[in-house]
Amino acid sequence: MQRRQFTFGSLGLAWGLSVNWGMQAWAVDGNSKNYRVGVIGHTGRGNYGHGLDTIWFDVDRTEIVAVADANADGLQRELAKLKLAEDAGYVNYHEMLKTVQPEIVAVCPRQPDQHHAMIMAAIEAGAKGIYVEKPFVRTLREADEVLAAAEHRNVKIAVAHRNRYRSELQTIDQIISTGELGKLLEIRGRGKCDRRGGAEDLWVLGSHVLNLMAYFGGKPKSCSAVLLQDGQLVTKQDVLEGPEALGLIAGNELHARYLFDTGVVGYFESIANGEIGSHGFGLQLIGSKGVIELRCDETDFAHLVPGNLFEPSQAGRPWLNIRSTGVDRTEPNPEHVTRVQHHQVPCEDLIAAIEEDREPLCSAKEAAQTIEMISAVFESHRQNGRSIAFPLEVRENPLTLLD
User: Fold this and answer.
1) Are the beta carbons of 224 and 256 closer than 8 angstroms?
2) pTM for the full model?
3) Is the dihedral of CA 196, 202, 208, 209 positive or negative?
4) Domains, the chain, ranges and CATH?
5) What's residue 231's pLDDT?
6) How far apart are CA 210 and CA 191, in angstroms?
7) 73: enclosing H helix or E strand
8) pLDDT digits (tens, 9 = 90+) for 293-325
């Protein structure tokens, strides 16, 4: 529990106000600074993500002042959507950043191939904070460069792994620390296992799961993994340019094992057309006295299933809702869930991080760790399933080196 206690202790504002989120994020006095927001999207190439352009209408003390979109038609539609004048639109985001110099930049495209360049340009232009869609970037080299530049300029970067902002995580920490779950035996995660199963699922949806897995497990120490294509080990011939501008991917099935610095072992699996619907998207914290089910992006996010999973039960086991105030209770602030899902809470936390000179709750450093966990799957498979130590030596996409 040491890592999680440090996290909450150092981010007192974010979690200290979790019960009140949805009503008012923080008290605003007459001297509070307002922030000008520049939005970067690209119609036809990732668009504007999951509402990262419009959320600023609902974030106090922010004003959208400009938008950049290399697609001229898309730019016109976005100007109307954001209720901006014609001169607030730019086809070149470099020009927008240089001219407007916004304090906060929203890097919106869902596709990650331009994230690195957009983030670096925002840092260079003097942005104080950046909110970026996931996946964060495509390689560890890109992550290294972003982290170094952000540290040099003291720029705060938050990544849109929304589940990290759910207040139920506090309750789960308490369940684990008090022994109610018993001994934490392992963590199991899955993507949606739909047509995208395998490497694509790992990138697009698994990034959410791996981010949460490390939250509970700690820093990853090693990874061993295998990639399969139609039941056969992936070879160089199976490597292809992935959809969603993900870069090189391979395999429609994967099985990965992580060892974390707390001693906990985590597993991530994805099988194309796994016939489980979206119900498996998330992770399980398997303890000797019960299981905690986390269902990513669902309104009913967390459940406790009491009892030893390995002991037969004739009566069945209930799924008890986990809320911000405890297990099997009524949520006193249901609006918080909506505010997290719509990115309002993460954006407010980014502003608080700027003003308190701290890392956002889901920072670029944590997102880079997630990218490293994804890369480790490819690197382990490239080395015939060998256990790969963190940090990885290979900083490019390991599939480029597959024999």
Assistant:
1) yes
2) 0.91
3) positive
4) 30-162 (3.40.50.720), 164-359+372-382 (3.30.360.10)
5) 96
6) 10
7) helix 72-82
8) 999 989 999 999 999 988 887 777 899 999 999
